[in-house]
Every structure is written in C-alpha cells, then in structure tokens.
Amino acid sequence: MSEEKKAPRKKLAAAADINQFMRDYYLELDAAAAAGSPKIAWCTSVGPAEILRAMGFLVYFPETHSAMLGATRMATDLIPEANAIGYSPDICSYLTADIGAFLRGVTPLQKAFGIQSIPRPDVLVYNTNQCRDVQDWFVWYGEKFNAPVLGVHTYRGVDEVTDRHIVSIAKQLEALIPPLEKIAGRRFEMEDLRRAVDLSRQCSELWKQILDTAAARPSPITFFDGTTLMGPAVVGRGTPKAVEVYRKLLAELEERIRRGEGALEEERYRIYWDGMPVWGRLSAHAQLFASLRANVLASTYCNSWIFSALDPNDPIPSMARAYTELFIVRSDEAKEDYIRRMLSFFQVDGIIYHDAKTCPNNSNCRYGMPQRLEKETGIPSLILNGDLNDLRLISDEQTKTNVEAFIEQLEERRS
Amino acid sequence: MSEAALYVGCDVGSSRTKVAVLDAGGRILGLAVRKSGTDFTATAEACLAEALAAAGTDAGRIARAVSTGYGRLNVRYAHEQRTEIGCHAGGCYHAFPRAITVIDIGGQDNKVIKLDAAGRRTGFKMNRKCAAGTGAFLEEMAARLDIPLERMNAMAERSTDMVRLGSFCTVFSATEVLEHIRHGKKIEDIVKGVFYSMIKRIVEMDSLTAEVVMTGGVVAHNPYLVRMMEELIGRPVLVPPHPQFTGAIGAALYARSGSGEP
Predict the structure, then answer these.
(1) Cα-Cα-Cα-Cα dihedral of A129, A135, A137, A143, to 10°?
(2) B125 vs B210: CA distance, rounded Å
(3) What CATH architecture does domain B6-87+244-257 belong to?
C-alpha cells in the first residue's frame, strides 16, 4: 500500500542512433587528438561553431562534457578539487566539475566510450552569451594547454535585438577569422561557412520540429528525453550527420502522434520546465513526474538550441542575430513574452522554475518573474531549489514533497 | 459510509509522529504523538495503538487511513499518501473554512500555504534547504544556550530588551548567540531574538494575504511565537485547536473523503 509508485518510461528507438552519434563524435575527436590532425577547437555551447567547422576544426564542447559529469554523478566529488584552487562553490558547477575532473585526471568518456582523456585544444573559442564563467573556464584551460583563447563578448539584458547589436557581434565574429586562419593553417572560405550555416540551420529546424511535437496531446516526448536527445543539436550542428539522426527521430515522434501514443502511460498534467536540468537526477525526476501522471514536456533549456535566424545567404550577420536572440541574454520582458508563448503553444497546466544555486544566468525566478507570469496567465508555478551539477545543493526529499504538493494543487484546480 | 467507521491520519514528521482518529462526522476521537525516532514504521504503529486506545476503540473500525510527512511511505496501514502541504492545508481549512494563509513551522521545514474560500490551494512555499527558522533551528539554539526546549517559550516572554540576530544561517546565528553571551546579554533577550529570527525567516518566504493561521508542533509548544507574529504583521493570527496535529487531522479528513478534497 505504501510503496513508491513506479511508472514505466517508453524508450525511443532513435535514441540508440543518437547514442551512436555521440560515440562517433567523441571517438573522432579522440583520434584527431592522438594524430594531431585535424586540429581541435574548443567551443562554448552557443559559440561560433559554424566558423570553426568551416575552417576544418573538429569542435569539442566542454559544457557537454560537464553535463556528462553531472549525469554520471561524478561531478559532486570533483567540484571540491576546483574549489581548493580558488574557484568558489558558488560559481558555475559546470566549470568547477570540469576543472575538478581535469585536475583529478578523470572523464566520463572513459566509461562511456573507452576514451582516456578530453582532447587537447589547438584553440579555445568562447561566447559569453552563456555567462562570464565560460571565459574564466576557457582561460584556465588555455593556460594549462598553452593554447590561444579567443572570445566573443555578448550583450546582456537585450530587449529588442537591433542592427547595432548585430553589427557589433558580427564584427567580433569576423575578428576571429585572422587568428583562426593562422592556427588552422588555411584560409577562411565564405562558401565553407555558408555550407556549415546551412547545415546548422537544417539541424536547428529539425530540432525545433522535434521539440514542437510536444504540443500534441498526449505529448510523444518529455523534457527528460530532450536533455539527452539534444546532443547532436549542441555538438553536431553544422554537420550532415546531425541532420540525418534528427530526421529519423522526428519521423518516430510523428509516428507516435499518428498512433496517439504519449511518452507516458498516462498524461494528466502538462508541465513546462524553466532553467537547467538537474543532471544527476534526470532519471529520478523523470520517474517522479511520470508516477504522478505529469509530463514535463517542454522547456526553455532544450529550446535554447533553436537558431531560426541562421541564414546561409548572410552567414556572419545571421549568426550574430541567432546568438543574440538567445533567451539567456534577453531582458526579463523578452523572456516573459517568450515563456507566455510557450505556455500557450504547449497548453501547459503548470510551470516549474529550477533555481540552480550556481547558475544565476539560467535561473529566471529570482526577480519576480514567476509571480508576474502567474498573475497574468493564471498558470500555477513552483520553484525548485537545486543545482545543475552539485548534488550537495539538492534535497531530494524537499523536491519530492514540493512536486507532489504542486500536482495536488493542479488536481484541486480541476475538481 | 458506516456510522461506526473511523478514519485515521498519520503524520510522520522529522521530529514527531502524530496520529489522529476521526469519526465519519469529522469529530476527533483520539490523538497521539511520539518521537519519530529511527523506525518510522514501528512508531506509526505505536502511535496508532495509542490514539485508538484514547478513542476507546480498536483497529477493526478503521475504514481508511492516509499518511503524510517525511515518513509517509513507511506507514504500513496507510491506504494512500498525501503531502504534508495538502494535509496542513486541509486540517486548517477544517478549523477555519474560508480564505486563509497557513503557516506551518515544522521540525525540518516551514511552509506557507494559501487557500481560497473553497479551500483550494492557490500556491505554497517551503523554506529552502537551510534549517534557519525551523524547529531544528530552535533545538540547536536551545542546545547552545543549554536551556531545555520546553523552557524557551517562557524565557522569551520574560525578555525586556530583545537582541537581534542578523544571519540567515543556523551556524552563523549560533556564532552570533555566542557573541551576545560573551557581551553579557540576558539569556531571555537572546531567546526572544531567536524567536524573532524564526518568524522573520517565515515572513520573507511569501506575502501573507488573507487571514493568517499558524500551526505545527513548534507553534503548539511555543505560543509566544504567535503573539510575536501578530505584532510583526499587525493583525491577529488564528491557531487551530490542536496545532501539533493539524497535519494528522488533515490526513484523516482526506481518508474520510476517500481521496481528493479533505
């Protein structure tokens, strides 16, 4: 009578292709690192990957590596290593987990793919659109590997994206090209960039269509699925393979919709998630919500790798626009407008804000937004205190009670 | 629903386990409380036996039982579990059936729950991970001051010049307390400062709209907190008849309704 309820989760067949994609991606990087060719560029998750691909670099994304440290629950033991050399437990736990892993000489790539270490960079390129922490993170590795560090410094709190923003960011992107040419040992060709931007745009469009399938009732996908299926959108954009795997995934989700099949056995409540995932609790959270017949089906986070502005006919300015239209750099007014549209599009019953202790940039509940949106839309909200990677900042029991009470509240609204 | 049927609510909190036995009319027939200890299942059983004895009956009449609290999954005789947020709300609404804001000060966490006139939750907040402002905070401070917990309320009432504790953090607050001791402050004034710090932690959790109801074991044993809250917010605060048992009563009311509304 009093046992925890277990709710079965349905697996997507295309998830195996995505796993294979990630395996191939890391093995290719590992081989290049061993051979010294092709050259390797490290890039932030919404950095100028298309320029790097156009110049023949293989591109490695430390944020994805750190998400793996979180998902494998290695992060919490590694973060103190970085704390001990002066990186506070209050700053980005992607940074502290990743630097901690490097100091300890461990990587989740070992267990997952038999890879002994992360690939040595020939150059590191960041865009501060995620946060300032990525700059500190890359500079630290730049010194370790004696590799050049280049960066784009973005605008923050952007209300409307104007031509002035675009011109400024485009200039910064263009300024990356001469030093990258020297490192790559080849000339930059605009045609190559057009191709990369075209592939990125295709990947982005497919990823958007994949996430938009959640508007169906029942939704064929969950946010928790999305956090692992998004790998190709992050590390593979600008490549033909990413486009290929996403076509297959989209077809499978559309087939689920045709059959009226949801991601959960029963979808009684539809929830929107704002903020970072708790990587070390993906499975536990998926189970918790499924047991309450609640589908967390859409999120700001997974949507953040949709770059609809990318245009192969106008590659650099369109990259500047795509990377400035990004949710995370926008004003609260622009963010609220975006979330309002998402709540309506996905027909959401409730919204959960994850207040990630070490990620203020991606925690949108600290300046009254939940209260404002709830007042306007009437859609109830819940704030969960937690973190993306540092499990010391999480109380599972409080999370469970909060989520269960929130679903009870939604239930009462219907009665 | 048989007249003889009984409904049981069991609230296994981090500090105490409470059981309430109700009849079909919602009248309280028996109550029992024990330290939760380390074996929640056994404590819940013992507490039920005690409450049934107080009601002058036996387990054979139990129609349905609902458990709540941290240990809600450890109660073997429960047919269903509900969160303590739902149960405290239900228990308070039963006592005050109108739009209310419920404040529950528990051993491990605090809750602010808002109910509309129909008793439906419109929102709720739990304190963050920190223990400041909870029963655990009070226990820690009592230990630091070397005062039995049950004497704290009377001491706070005797204060004439309350000290102010500025910190969010239990550990930092304890350091502040030591500093006040070193400076020769009266213990009564420090205890009242501890109480004031607790209610300050609560009022910053959410805006207190509608009539305010305070509940929970900490309030039951330290009614001076209610008076201090009234002074702080400038209006009367209601307390249900059995504040420590509100969660258990709310759970029993859920049991009586079968499921759904208490």
Answers:
(1) 150
(2) 16
(3) 2-Layer Sandwich (3.30)
Strand B6-12 and strand B16-23: pairing?
A: antiparallel
Task: Break chain B into its structural domains and give their ranges.
Answer: 6-87+244-257, 98-239
Report the C-alpha gap between B46 and B121 in whole angstroms.
32
Contact B67 A380 (CB under 8 A): no
DSSP B7: E
From first to last of its 415 residues, what are the pLDDT tens digits of chain A? 444 556 566 889 999 999 999 999 999 999 999 999 999 999 999 999 999 999 999 999 999 999 999 999 999 999 999 999 999 999 999 999 999 999 999 999 999 999 999 999 999 999 999 999 999 999 999 999 999 999 999 999 999 999 999 999 999 999 999 999 999 999 999 999 999 999 999 999 999 999 999 999 999 999 999 999 999 999 998 899 999 999 999 999 999 999 999 999 999 999 999 999 999 999 999 999 999 999 999 999 999 999 999 999 999 999 999 999 999 999 999 999 999 999 999 999 999 999 999 999 999 999 999 999 999 999 999 999 999 999 999 989 899 999 999 999 999 988 7
A383's enclosing H/E stretch is strand A381-386
CB nearest B121 (choices: A385, A397, A409):
A409
Choose among A397, A405, A411: nearest Cβ to B124. A405
- Altogether, the residues listed in chain B come to a count of 262
Residue found under tokens 């590694």: A78
DSSP assignment string, B216-233: SHHHHH-THHHHHHHHHH
Residue type, A60: Y
Provide φ and ψ at A149, rounded to 5°. Answer: -120, 125
Q: Can you spell out the DSSP letters for A25-88?
A: HHHHHHHHHHHT-S-EEEE-TTS-HHHHHHTT-EEE-HHHHHHHHHHTT-HHHHHHHHHHTT--
> Cβ of B84 and A408 within 8 Å?
no
Are A408 and B85 within 8 A, CB to CB?
Answer: yes
* Residue at A281: amino acid letter: R
> What does the alpha-carbon distance between residue A129 and residue A324 come to, in Å, rounded to a whole number?
8
Domain boundaries, chain A: 14-414
> Is-same-fold flag (B6-87+244-257; B98-239)?
yes
CATH of B98-239, picked from 2.40.50.140, 3.40.190.10, 3.30.420.40, 3.30.390.30, is: 3.30.420.40
How close, in Å, is residue A339 to chain B by CA atoms? 20
SS3 B236: coil
Q: Is A405 touching B (CB cutoff 8 A)? A: yes
CB A304 within 8 A of CB A328: yes
Decide: A274 and A354 in contact? Cβ < 8 Å: yes
Could you list the beta-strand ranges (E) of chain B.
6-12, 16-23, 28-35, 62-68, 80-81, 100-105, 110-115, 121-126, 211-215, 237-238
- Kindly determine whether residue A2 and residue B72, on different chains, have CB atoms separated by under 8 Å: yes
Confidence (pTM):
0.92
